[in-house]
Amino acid sequence: MTEVDGADGSWSDEAEFAALDSQVDGTAEDEEALLAQPVLAVVGRPNVGKSTLVNRILGRREAVVQDVPGVTRDRVAYDALWNGRRFTVVDTGGWEPGASGMQGAIAAQAEMAMATADAVLLVVDASVGATTTDEAVAKVLRRSKRPVLLAANKVDDNRLMPDVASLWSLGLGEPMPVSALHGRSSGDLLDAIVKALPEAPRDGERTAGPRRVALVGKPNVGKSSLLNKLTGEERSVVDSVAGTTVDPVDSLVELDGQTWRFVDTAGLRKRVHTASGTEYYASLRTKAAIDAAEVVIVLLDASEPLSEQDLRVLTMVVEAGRACVLAFNKWDLVDEDRRHQLEKELDRGLVRVPWAQRVNISALTGRSVRKLAPALRTALESWDRRVSTGQLNSWLSELIAATPPPVRGGKQPKVLFATQAGIRPPTLVLFTTGFLEASYRRFIERKFRERFGFEGSPVRINVRVREKKPRKGK
Q1: Is 45 assigned to a binding site?
Q2: Cα separations in angstroms, 445 against 2, 355, 384, 424
Q3: CA–CA separation, 341 vs 321, rounded Å?
Q4: Does 462 show up as a binding residue in the annotation?
Q5: 20 to 30 Å CA-CA from 94: which of 37, 323, 348, 371?
Q6: Where does GTP 1 bind (predicted)?
């Protein structure tokens, strides 16, 4: 992304005009290609240390970890690298055969991961030994037509080695003793993983460079339901209990003839510092998902009044400088009285994002969800767009001649030069002889949008004020 450091500041030499203008060639950086990578699914029963082992494989803390069973619920993909080989690691929720309700949905996610992976890593708690659940998983894996590795986790010292040997009974080959917590034998495990994985993914369906879309909103607003409707599968675990999603979940979604990379995130709480445990880390993951996205769909519950949480989510998106689409979910529950009330709420509550497109949808019935794709494309086109310096200065000269900046300190500031010094988001830099009031900046932004569009994208306006040259001594 093109960024301008220190855009608000001062200037002293007109040569800075040309220098800043020449830094931007009007094109975005090349999209990071999604390389075709083989996929490793990490499975096992709850609380055997799968997410801890995933973090050890990645060499960084990505998966949400807490010392209680059932923290991971969806299947979550991460990029990994070992000895020059790139591969994708899929962390899954605990697999329990015959589970029902939410636990059944979590087990279905693990089964889906096993079915679509190029290799599977079964994690067993060596301190407990092979349980009936482990034996049931092993039975499924023995019938699969893909390589299976067996990791005997929580082997923190040699006293557990006899217990590791007993895991041969699972019929999956040699169990590899590891300690995800302390890193014991993690290098040997990674060597075995790389050896077991094929050079390219089995399905060969990876595409290069889909645009990245973060799906955000307060808890229980319908984010996972919308993602499931878009993908046509039970991609995210859905439950009426708020806070079901903990990790961001990546999905490649075919929408209106185009592939998008959607990330379903945990619901943002009122304050990150009031959350604890998994909620705290999930909030951090959600913020990271916004930062990593190019465009954000902010999901709002149309049947309820706008809340402080909704406004906080919008503030995070604007501050991150991401393109934005507002999706009003549960529209099937909105009657005429509620629509009238909603318009009043939006006039008051969405003053920071009047430029964001609005789409009324129902994740439950599928109403108008296909309208999201055109709105996303419009927002991204605005986010990527640049107005030439000649066009910008010609328009700005006419605007300022008709409506000059307000006088400040007895002097009227002049705008000498302007350039769009950045995209993603579009960033204007104005070289002036004095400070421009915030209200006048907002006026310039409003008129800029009226003239050039930029619907769906934030526009930043920064000012550089000419330095006063020190007077020469008499």
Answers
A1: yes
A2: 20, 11, 17, 16
A3: 29
A4: no
A5: 37
A6: 44-51, 91-95, 153-156
Positions of CATH 3.30.300.20 in the chain: 9-26+386-466
Any known ligand binding at 217?
yes
Mean pLDDT confidence for 374-380 = 97
Burial of 149 (0-12, 13-18, 19+ CB in 10 A): buried
268 is in an annotated binding site: yes
Query: Is 221 one of the annotated binding-site residues?
Result: yes
Is 15 part of any known ligand binding site? no
Q: Does 91 appear as a known binding residue?
A: yes
Q: Any binding-site annotation on 219?
A: yes
CA torsion angle 242 244 250 255 (round to 10):
-50
Q: Which homologous superfamily is 211-383 in?
A: P-loop containing nucleotide triphosphate hydrolases (3.40.50.300)
User: What are the tens digits of pLDDT across the range 4-51?
Assistant: 444 577 777 776 666 666 655 433 333 333 335 788 888 888 888 888
